[in-house]
Amino acid sequence: MFCIKCGRPAKIGNFCDACFLDSEELFAIKDFSMEYCDICGINQNMIKEQIIGSLKTKNNISNTKVSIKLVGNKAHATVTCSGSIKGLPKTETKNVMVIIRKKMCAMHVKLSGGYYEAVIQIRGRDKDNILKYATRLLPKKSISSIEKLKEGYNIKVLHKANAAAAVRGFRKRYEVKDSYKLAASKKGEMLYRNYYAIR
Ligand SMILES: [Zn+2]
Ligand SMILES: [Zn+2]
To answer: Are residues 93 and 38 in the same domain?
Structure first.
């Protein structure tokens, strides 16, 4: 048996090793689009991860390299994979285009709509220090807003867990009072809001 393409001895079906590898695809990839939140930001590694995640293959891939050139809202990527098909090593390079669309993430949609699950009420003589310390303890993204009042500050916090964790740092040195109120969200869902009064 000889290879139907080149005439050398056939090894796999009607092909020699080289012509067999030529006829087989190591991996497949298609153009796609991805969404990202403008406020959270995006970097090339996030695009690379999505590209690697979209690779399709039935073969063994041992190494993948992705390089990206950003042009406007498009990422032009070159993907090189090394691996093997039926035990024969092959390296293949393909181009793919990723369209990057802006879409606010769920968390920032909530933040921009004024959503919050907890309020840290800062009062008393030491209020400015407490505020400084609290904003350091809270992840930046978790703060919905900070209100300045005559008697102190109210920090509205997106997630209860972040508020609870931050307040924990005050319990030894300050007086902390916990309470909650039932409130309706804008969409009409009932929500228990946690309140922490620190003084
Ligand atoms: Zn051949
Ligand atoms: Zn975001």
So the answer is: yes
